[in-house]
Protein 1
Amino acid sequence: MRTQVLIIGGGPAGLLLSQLMHRQGIDTLVLERRSRDYVLARIRAGVLESGMVDLLREAGVGERMDREGIVHEGTYLALSNRGFRIDFKQLTGGSVMVYGQTELTRDLYQARDAMEGQVLHEVGRVQIHDLDTDSPHVTFTKDGRAQRIDCDYVAGCDGFHGVSRKTIDPAVLREFERVYPFGWLGILSQTPPVSEELIYASHERGFALCSMRNQNLSRYYLQVSLQDSIEQWSDDAFWDELKRRIPLAAAESIVTGESIEKSIAPLRSFVAEPMRWGRLFLCGDAAHIVPPTGAKGLNLAASDVYYLSRALQQHYNDNDDHGIETYSATALSRVWKAERFSWSMTRLLHRFPDQSPFDWRMQQVELEYLESSVAAQTSLAENYIGLPY
Ligand code: APR
Ligand code: PHB
């Protein structure tokens, strides 16, 4: 078998790249280790930068997002049960779109189906070969049978635990990492959101976040110790603790209910360099991870796909390899800025086990400065809505 761009990973990065390439007449094939239902069952975030919203519309998958997504022109930050608003619209003229990653991935699969895009699910033992030649190929198993696909390029969109990054020569690959000493306990509940916009709350007892999926599906998070287990956190214990950490008005008005999903996620900052090695390009979580505090994970996958899709279009349609040559540097420049923002939001809003009373006072004063400074708010707002591509 043969294709032009072989994409490993059928998550949002791989599917969006495949969709954009197909609309440009460039042939792709997606290899996904899991079943479609498994991929769609993953509960992930859902705050989209304006650049990603535009890219999804360009890819022809913006219709349901524009119909069901919620535009947010601001967000709330809170310190010790008292909140203040960051007005994105007034400060930057921009906004974000709240639309779940699960829904977005579903839209991408439907769009691939509509264009008869090739996505092979439940493949195994994916291995990448000859990336330092003009004709790489990928081997894998499907239904127990060994298969081979020849291609021009490989796009590694296979997430943090994928095979692509591990194929890069260890002598070339550089990895930067910060693992945070706490996790996020998240629940999904079929209750109306406590606030029209998100609330990022800093509290002596730890961080909390109030988010939503729609008018009757809410998503809440609590900073917890990595030693904690789900079993330790009954729904009642979760709601009680959440009420202690969020602004008083929200705590009094919040509608609680049974959780329909509950999970603990570790927090990590991670970047792999370079994002291109020979005929291999890395996109999304395969190359970088951000702590969710800045809502950048999905959006960084989209900007990688934006740069790579432009580069491949230039190569195939204009016989110009400038985009391919500069892909890694261009993508990494935006990745590191989002890493900085996500790290600074995490450092600002969470309680660190080893922090001193001075450290805690610094966090409080930094939030008070943010509340009083238009300049500081503008910096946060422009990073949150997304820096230009
Ligand atoms: N072979 C084939 N598929 C693989 C392999 C492999 N060896 N390893 C992993 N995969 C698949 C996974 O099953 C997954 O469906 O690659 C896909 C990677 O998808 P994601 O992890 O969703 O990564 P990405 O598409 O880059 O999206 C990034 O996902 O985790 C969130 O916060 C993150 O929102 C961000 C987004
Ligand atoms: C979410 O809705 O799941 C969410 C929103 C914002 C974040 C992280 C997660 O920063």
Protein 2
Amino acid sequence: MTRSFEKVGVVGLGTMGAGIAEVFARAGLTVVGVEADHEALGRGRGNLESSTGRALAKGRLSEAEQAEILGRITLTTSLEDLADADLVIEAIPEIMDFKRTLFTELDRICEPSTVLATNTSSLSVTEIAATTGRPGRVVGMHFFNPAPVMKLVEVVHTVVTEDGLAEEVADLARRLGKTPVSVGDRAGFVVNRLLLTYLNHAAVMLENGLATREGIDTAMKLGVGVPMGPFALLDLIGLDTSYEVMCVLFQETRDRRHAPAPILRELVTAGLLGRKSGAGFYNGEAPPTPPAAGKPTVTSVAVLGEGAEEFAARLGDAGFKATTTQAATDATEDADVVVALSHTPVIELAARLPHPRRLVGLHLVGDKLAEVASTVLTSPEATCAVEGLAKIVGRVPVHCKDRAEFVVDALLYPYLNDAVRMHDSGYATMDDIDVAMKLGCGYPAGPFETIDTLGLETVRDGLRALYAEYRDPAFAPAPLLDQLVTAGVRSIRGLS
Ligand code: 3HC
């Protein structure tokens, strides 16, 4: 018989828990929200009021509707009030001991038929289930922040989940207006495994001084079209949560890319947890502003590389003396700056020039972004001038070091590679991974759609370049990708 979920309990009313309670209440279910004490309950009430208040302010909700939603949520400090709930979901901190203690209690209190769910980001659902006398009725129900907005729910089943239960929970997610993706119990599931690995990579890049925090955020937003750059997103998720997810991933994989970037530990230890504490990578909620570009004081520019003619023509229209050249030699002698349009590092080119201080790499990404790469020989004046030139041709400049794949591709390709490996491992289908990344993170396209758009060979070659530069085995192209390129296959999604 199919269960009917009408009364649900939500334990923990932090950002996620309050969001989840709101989602259930909006769908017409009766919700009991539980917090540890009256102070935390007050904060939970505040979270509920501010989230629905936001919708009210935007005219998406009337006052009556807000009152109706909040009226469906009862707040309590007693777990005993969950005894007759059809489903209880926890959203307490990501500490296994806390979860085990809570689930032992819930198992004692709730009816045997009650389904117990965890919103854990990465901890083992199996281990949590094993603390109860009903492991077959314990599942993961993983929402995404902000829960009222993001459309994805990962429904996590374990090897002992009762037959049919994951599908019933998926139906419940649909009733909430969400799209469920059903996954097995593996650290990070689909989204966090891919997303947090990428966010951690961005933090490592920042530590290596490849580009600034604002630069990396701007590059990813403009270059890939993600709704938030990695540091703004880390602040939204919470740096403590992100750090804990990385620790769990590292414990399972021992992959050094999953070792949390030291800057995460430092910020967390300092109490800078992101939005929830008021400051993290950014202070407050101010969106990152694009880095300022200097006014170009140069008059003559030599341009070389693919697309040089068009770029030079644009500069010519803007009043510069712009020439193109194929060889980085004498033809550049008289130029104030030399712009090398390139998607690969330009140091070799610079080293061949009579005036290497004048050479700056420029990687045009999409139609909005220009990555401005200065080598160890480039002068600050030349960098500044080329940033200004990028602006003149209508692009936002992001300054970076002259490293393989610069910023956007260096972050994007390993993420795509991880998705290919995930699919190839049999953990999730390409469709499920694409849907999960689009609905869980608001990405404009899933990783497999992105690979098809960019071209399999481009991604494979980019990964080879990254591997050659950093020698990280994780950057070596996934064997499946390599073989598809060798076989001349043009669409990875065509395989599914
Ligand atoms: N709570 C409730 N509603 C919110 C909200 C919040 N914190 N933030 C935004 N919203 C609502 C707004 O009210 C608005 O609703 P409307 O369309 O009905 O008017 C809508 O979301 C869009 O908001 P804004 O126009 O103010 O802002 P943006 O267009 O910039 O969108 C965003 C904000 C939805 C957060 C968008 O930037 C986004 O999709 N970011 C990516 C978020 C993401 O990746 N989340 C997943 C993180 S991973 C995770 O949670 C898993 C965990 O285990 C770590």
